[in-house]
Amino acid sequence: MVNALLNFAIHRRKWVYWGLLLLTLAFVAQLPKIQIDTDPENMLNANNPERLFHNQAKTTFAMHDTIVVGVVNQHSIYNPQTLAALVDLTEYATGIDGVVQADLMSLANVDNITQAEPGTIRFEWMMKSAPTDLAGAKRIQAQAEKLPLLRNTLVSGDGKAAALYVPIVDKNQSYAIARDLKAHIATLASQDDWHITGLPVAEDRFGYEMFVQMGISAPLAGLTIFLLLWVFFRNVPFILPAMIVAMATVMITMGALIGMGFTVHIMSSMIAIFLMPIAVVDSVHILSEFADRHKPGQQASDTIRQVMGHLFTPMLFTSVTSTVGFLSLMLTPIPPVQVFGAFVGSGIMLAFLLTVIFVPAYLSGLSDKSLSRLLEKLPKEADSKLTPALRTLGKLAGSHAKLWLLGFAALFGLSVYGINMININDNPVRWFKSDHELRIADRVLNEHFAGTYDAFLVLSDTHNVNHKAIQAIANVAEDKQISEETRSWLRQQAEALEHNSNTLPALLLAVDDKSFELSDEYELDQLLAAQSTLEALSSQSKRFLSPSVLDYMSQLQLHLQDSGLVGKSNSLSDVVKTVNRELRSGNQTDFVLPESANGVAQTLLQYQSSHRPQDLWHFVTPDYRQSLIWLQLTSGDNQDMTGVVKLVEDYVQANPLPADMKLDWAGKAYLNVVWQQEMVAGMLDSLIGAFVMVLVMMVVLFRSLAFGILAMLPLTLTISLIYGLIGWIGKDYDMPIAVLSSLTLGLSVDFAIHFIERFRATWAEHKDWQTTLSLMFEEPARAISRNAIVIAMGFTPLLFAPLVPYITVGVFLASIMAISALVTLIMLPSLVSLLRPWLFKA
Amino acid sequence: MMKNAVFLLLSGLSLASPIQAQEARDIVKQAELTAYYAGDDGRSAARMIITDNQGRKQMRQFTILRRDQVDGGAQDMMVFFSQPADVRDTVFRVVKHTDSDDDRWLYLPGLDLVKRISAGDKRTSFVGSHFFYEDVSGRNTELDDFSLLTQNDDHYLLEGKAKDPASVEFSRYEVKIDKASMLPVQIRFFDNQGRQYRQVDALKVENIDGHPTVTHSRVQDLLSGGQTEMQFRFIKYDLGLPEDIFSERSLRTPPRDWLNLRD
User: Fold this and answer.
1) What domains can you pick out in chain B, each with its CATH number?
2) B interface mutation test: which of A614, A621, A625 has the most B CBs within 10 A?
3) What range does the record give for the signal peptide (chain B) (predicted)?
4) pTM for the full predicted model
């Protein structure tokens, strides 16, 4: 197989060149179709039940993606200038195409419900036009602060900030709308501080920063690798094939991803930067060996045959193990992580294939002249700064085996302790650097308001009264004293209700209409009796008009408020109490629920007599069978959201929900928790899966269980060490940290494979312990170190990326590579020297 | 003499002449009489179906009693809710004035509460529907300036603009009046950006006791996509409704005899 491949590569060089060129071009042609995806919701499968519920709730309660504009005045926003600016901006925002005008919320377009004089009630715009004097502004302050739905949502409790909620139809328009708003604010000549934030804006910025990352970090990684290779080999034509393989791999993989219709998500935007260093590793091995073995006068193709015969199997195995590490990410239930794993994994195999075909073809095509010039320029291995350092390391590793292992065991223990301290937490807003304008807006607005992070508690009545209604109708239809015509009509109605082609309220209308058609006294009496039964059932089905249900919601809200975890909550219960207060005395003593369901219904009928009747449907469905409690949180940290979920769980445990009622969560803050939980569990599966597969491969490769286990030990310590460190320093375990585990496994086992492979070969040749050990710290140790350096350095450009997850990945992968190489080079010789009697029985 | 000649000359040149404006106002006045003052009194049973942009429906049923104090002038009106059952016996009382703000009261049986609704904005939703309070009692024609845009054999098309633009949400509206019945059959409202955002249509007109009467109408919210349809049944004019039933007492004790539709 290997020979056939080599023969093809060496004898059909032009085919190889043209083939690679055409293949690359075909995939590059796919790149312009790129589609960026920045929606954190996509961390969950499209058919994830919690995601589906979230979106259903969003539709049901008419929730939109919303841009939040905040205005802050250090003294008070209640002055004519600030309020005029707010009115002006509100007017402007309602006119922007793509804004959901009906649901836009600002002090300038909400209603005030007041008692104009004793015994009267008044609905009027809170601030149709801005007040002209300070007294007018103070009046607005007094009114706004009296309405619980506004306080700390539209205006801050400290009077220093106001917010404008701009719901948009399509979040892809968020950038354009935010830009228009910003431009208009600039024309207001306002002295106040204005902030624009909100999830759609954040997502949009995120997409932009992703492009920046791909446009800067990936080419920078290419340049870094190129410079490193030049330092190693000092000859541009010689390192060219490695660079060509890396570039082609990246472009083909990205082309395939885009061409197959996958969107580019935060994870897949890192594919280029992952593939680049990994793709050159095999080439580095070939080039190193080739430079070592090639003697002037020799045929380049002969040398390459020798080199490949030697390297093919270890290269295949290291590529396969790395691939397994990445493919294991497909075991996580997070689609973007799966896509990332699948494409990096396949990319590594592609890089291997390209390397074993293209590099031999290229090298065998070099003329004798350029080859000998190249070999002259090569830096002498003895001059390398690595050489003495590695020799010292080798001596240290071999001499104090027991001490080293004791040290490693201690480190492992500390790491396990550290892992137990790991804090699982994430917050997509924190993916921006802390000085980013969105982070600043986030901080400022959450200081003043009850919170810009939303979670929704959705309560649903599960009791369906329709079968009782059907029974009531059917009973009348049985009555033989009633005419056949009327009975048949009744049967039709019952059937329509049974097959859900009609609703109870619609049935009530039909029965009412029918009652005017009937002339027979007896029939009319029967029908009217049925009508009152149906009415009773209909009223009974409107659970969220029931004062006891509303009171349960209030008590739950109170409990949440007292916990301090929730900034504020808004519910139907608050709406009812507010209107009831204004219908009665207007005093806080009347901020209570009416005593009957009819009282609640009539209170709400009044609420609907405002300028914004549709606002009611954000809190309850028109059939009054589902209701939403809107929680405002000042922190979007998953940890805090998890705390709130637990709080509600405990409360419901101690205070059971009203009968036939269920409670569900929705809202972005909650969805983040869902995908994080799935990710933590999924990552463990992925890590275990990768570990087992790699272990099996090692056993097969070395045809020895002992060596197989030996190969897994350095990376086990490395991974434990890294995660232990995360626990010790208190860095949150978030998405980028989570994905590192299994791919680290795939990458760092390479060092062990090379070390053990070469150790066994050297031992077989020399049969002398000391010689083998010192030889291992010559060329093999140098090759391992170089690879570690190439990969580690290849990731460092991520440090200049604009988003925190990229930086995290860069820092950790670079340190993982360094630690992993070091641990391999020290731990394996110590272990081998201790276990020599078992390992080398023969 | 000279002064008058100059006045005539000038008015002849001007496009929106006072004579035209007067003609437009006459048309509007006549339409108002037809739509809101048929007979000396009247009763009808109304059913409102409110549909939101998700197709979810809400229903309201109520009986309206009306009595004119002066034809084209002050009017008494009472609205008695019968459906849904949880708002049954809620009553809304209006005394309409043409020279001052209307007086409005409300009775909520579930709270055992009679409230006066303070004079103020009447362009708020009527019980959650897409109709405004003002649409039910009739917008005072004195609040707007009118001009005749066009006319054909069947219709007049007039434009209305509020005399006080700050008091309303529209910048202008166009009303189409049927020449035969003199009923407004369509009104289209435009906002400050010139977008049409609201439309009222008379979907069905019937002749009842010699009075052309809208028996089915619809308001559409063109921006959000919701709409309300209102149907009127059991319409009767000139029942001889006594003056004393239009009183505060009737809020808590509805005049059952006058509300019974089954006779």
Assistant:
1) 18-258 (2.50.20.10)
2) A614
3) 1-21
4) 0.86
